[in-house]
Amino acid sequence: MNATPRAAAVDHVLISTTAPNRSQVWLAVGVVVSLFAAMAGVAPYASQSLPNTEVLLPAYAAGVLVIELITSALLVSLFHVQRCRAILLLASGYLFSGTLIVPWVLTYPGLFNSFGIDEGLQSTAAIAALRRLGFPLFILAYAVLSERSYAGGSVRLAILGMIAAVAAVVCLTTWLVFSNDRHLPDFMIDARNVGLLWRYIPVLAGLIYLAGMVALSLRFRTILDLWLMVVLVTLLIEVVQISYLGSGVRLGVGWWAGRLFGLASASIVLVVLLSETTAVYTRLARSEAAQRRTRQNRLTAMEALSASIAHEVNQPLASMVTNADAGLRWLDKADPHLDEAKAAMKRIVDEGHRASKIVSSIRTMFMKSARERERLDVNDLIVQVIKASEADARLGRVSVNLDLDRGAPHVIGNAVQLQQVMSNLIDNAVEAMRSVGAGQRTLRLVTRQLDHGDVLVSVEDTGSGLDAAHLERIFDPFFTTKPDGMGMGLMFCRTVIDAHGGRLWAGPNSPRGAAFRFSLPPAINVDTGREEE
Ligand code: ADP
User: 424 C-alpha vs ligand 1 centroid, how far in Å?
Assistant: First the structure.
């Protein structure tokens, strides 16, 4: 995709780039079914007339005007962020349809006569025909125009140009209609009944609606596409109500029901835009709060870590000094005790290794390459780690059970660090199973996609299990229950998973042992703006 970096960065939060989830699709289906049910409910009364209800038309027109202008403004702001020309075209469709309702209601026969406005029989119908055919053409153009049509140049200029063009077309149309009623096609035979010529309009409109639906379903990718299809269905119902069930007779039940469907249709995209905008703000506020918490936690963890490192490295250093002193004393004697001196040297070497291990594990965590991220399949990482563990004979007599969801999304991460995390969890699991009989040692590795899209990895063993009293502390630096343990493994794992935007937690495994689980956010596909599936 040609998207600017800025567009790519916001891709996953816009209704024009995010794919609808299953519940949104069901909601849209529900709306369509209810609209059809409403149409069927009104059908028996459609031809009844509702005299004198034209006084309600200005309120209706004001409603449509406000709704379509706000929708257009929101779509313009969407274009401002995403810079996709098709969105600007859609915004101009709403602006065109919204502003044309003004001359439509002003010219409605008999409505504004007392203000000196009497434009004859045909003006309102001519404007109605223009709106009815014009608006779905904008949707059709939106559907056909490639998503790749990103606007270069000034966005502000594009927006001003669009507003000026629509204003010019609407003003020109209004002027033509106001000054030429006698030359307009004979759509109406009197103020309420349509003539033969009008019969072509609903057919033409219906064909454009259908073409729009086909075009949208062919490129069906985003939440906006889904709801534009619902808009077209609503418009189709409107035209069927007005022109067929209501026989095109103005101010009848069918005609008014059609108007209400028109109002519903005008509101659909607005409601979706507003609800999605609210959802985006909520998500942003939540993620901002989470980031602040993470920063705070990281600071506290860093302080604790520095204090612990100082303490832990100090211990082998102190022990090395003591042993070196002792060794020197053994050698200084008139009859040097070589064995004791050798034992002291050996302890110095061991302590030296211990200190170096602490330092190198800290380096793995903070090494520069740790910031290098790439698209990864966790399943592949697991298989690689298991193969490496088998090659090093680290798995011992443990039977390995892989339950991998091959359809799980990719993640963005550092392969070395994530492999290290899995390797640590697997080593811990294998160690915990040393206390149980060889036949009962099972290591189970599971991957799944969670409902909200995250990838879950679970490392389950049938070992000694976690002591409830230690559960809170096992992730602390240098906490260990093993005689030769360092207590750095789980702390490292949690730091890495946190830095990947995920979560690591532990709990009991069923029927026995421990389960360590972590989740990672899915990679966002920059080409489609969707989370990968
Ligand atoms: P280390 O392995 O050096 O002790 P870790 O941070 O990896 O350091 O682990 C800390 C402690 O958590 C371990 O000493 C052990 O008590 C506990 N632990 C970790 N993994 C398991 C497991 N799979 N089963 C039981 N206890 C575990």
Answer: 9
